[in-house]
Every structure is written in structure tokens, then in C-alpha cells.
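As a warm-up, study this chain.
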Amino acid sequence: MKENNYRICSKTIMDTTADPDITFDEQGVSNYVKEYNELIALRVPEKSLAKKKLDRMISKIKKDGEGKEYDCLIGISGGVDSTYVAYLTKKLGLRPLAVHMDNGWNSELAVSNIEKTIKKLDIDLHTEVLDWEEFKSIQLAFLKASTPDGEIPTDHTIYAVTMKIAAKYGIKYIISGSNIKTEGILPRSWARGHLDWKYIKSVCKIHGNGVPVHFPHITMPSVFYYLYIKGIVNFPILNLIEYNKANALEILSTELGWQYYGIKHYESVYTRFYQGYVLPRKFKIDKRRAHLSSLICSGQISRDQALTEIEKAPYLDMDLEKQDLDFVIKKLEISKVEFERIMQLPIKTIEDYPNSFDKWEFVRKTYWKLKSRI
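Now compare it with the structure written out below.
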């Protein structure tokens, strides 16, 4: 049941459910539409300029990579964005090293998609396997921390691992699948602090087994080292092409035999469970709202289509939901009683724990201001 003062954006499907930061103008349009358009203006050039920038960047990557085994690095999860980047880099004549971060939660479909992609595109793969016992402790700590950003450890270590491997092989360019068109909307209150090692450490100290020893991580000094000493460049290539999710799905399916897993990020069992079960039930957060709203703003779907889609359950079917619930509880080695106790804990945010979020925000904004002037 929706609250009495419930409101929904007149252009997207962002609403007041579990979002204290949403605002509306006189036409009922939420702040996210304006913020999305500002990001597009800042990071996505118009078509002719984007083509020139892409050509210039590809030429630079090839030139800087001469004499090296690889001229760029790509992360690959088995999902659509990262797989399309793999496809695109090969079409553009680049020589990528693919890096996969195995945190113990790969779905069978994700593994199959990665294998097909690597084989058909003839790309070398480096798989970084996390220490499961340690990572299990980190994930349990974040569940007990009772914040809605339980996926932050995975996001953090993916960034750390790709930087580490790029430095190891002398690769200057990390080509990522992150993009504004399909990912430009996400409320701050749902997840922040992805790079904040201080925050992760504090949660692990309070709710886990202390500071992780083997967990790949980054700090401000290490980010400075990677970016300015090693000269590693993060290149979100999808911002420079006409990236359409439906078209990408068709290409990957036809040319690579790749199979879709239903919903964004559901290639990971834990992410599927966290976004489809934990977030909606405990925090009243449905991340599909942000994903679908981004597609509306990019003109890839209509608002009516998004409204129809959001009426469907976060899980594809109830049997899969029960299967995932049992599997996650067993893999984390907790009882159903303990899990339900965690689900009932009072809701908290990053602000309830020691963090460096404001410092990271300053660094992020400064970085993009400088980058936009280049």
C-alpha cells in the first residue's frame, strides 16, 4: 500500500517510496530528470563530436599499446554492458585482457555467457578469485549493518582488482561498461561510498571479524598512484556510441550465443537476491525504478512500458525466489531465524558509521570538472 502523500515523477517512474531526496517541480517532474540531463551534457558528447573523440581515443589506445601483449583491460561479469564492451573492443581492433572478479556468487548462466564470449571473441581472461571465508564475513557484516548498500564490497573490489591487474600488465586503459544513458539515475540514499575503504573497514570492525586482510581494496593514495603515477585511464566507451540496450541484446544473442538473465545485474545470484528480495522487503527499494527511468530518459522505452514492467514482481518466479533464499542462507552459513532477525534490524545508512564519503565526493567532482575541460 502506498503512503498517503505518495508522488511519482510525471516523466519517469521515480517516486517517493524509500527516497527522501526526491523533489518535484511545478509540472511534477522529479529532480532526477534534470540531474540526468546534466550528466548527459557533461559526459556524453553530441553524435559527431562523440565519433571524433572515439576515433581519437581508439588510435591513442592502439599507439600506447604498441609492443605490449594487451592494449586495454575490460571487466567482464557475464552481463550485457560488460559483454557488449568486449564485443565492441574487438570490433574496433583492440587487444583487450578481460578480467573477471569471482566473489563466489556467479550464476551458471553468467559463467556460460563469459565462456562463450571469451571463446568466440578470442580474448584472454584473468579471473581473480576472492578469499571466500573472508568475503563471506564482509557480506554478513554489511547485512548486519542494516544499510541498503550491501553490494558496496563487491563494487569496491572490482575497481581495486581492475586497477591492480592493469598496473601489473602495464595497461594504461580500462574500458568500462558504465554509461550515463542506461545508468544515469540512482538515488544517493540507495548506495554511496563505493570507493570508501574507511566505511567498509568500519562495518567489518563493528559487525564482522575485523579489518579484512586479503580483500583487494583501494584508498585515496592508491587511487592517486594508479591514476597519476601509473597513468591509468578509465574509459567509459559506451558514452561515445549510440548505445541501445535492446540492440545490444540482439547483437550479443545472435553473434555470441549470449543469453539474457531477465533483469539488470541478475547475472549474480547474490545481486539477484539482494535486489529482488532484501532491498524491496526490508528497505522498500526497487532498483528497477532507477534502471527503467534511465531508459525512459534515454528514449529507449516509454513511461507506459516502464510502468507495466515495474508492476511485475522483482523475482522472475516464486520458485526461484525460494531457491535463492535457501541457497544464500546456506552459503552464508546462517539459520533462517538469524536471517529473519537481520531483516528486522532497524534501518541505518552510511552516516551511522565512520566514513570518508565527503572527501571522496570532493575528489570525484574535482576529477570530472578537470576531465570536462580536456
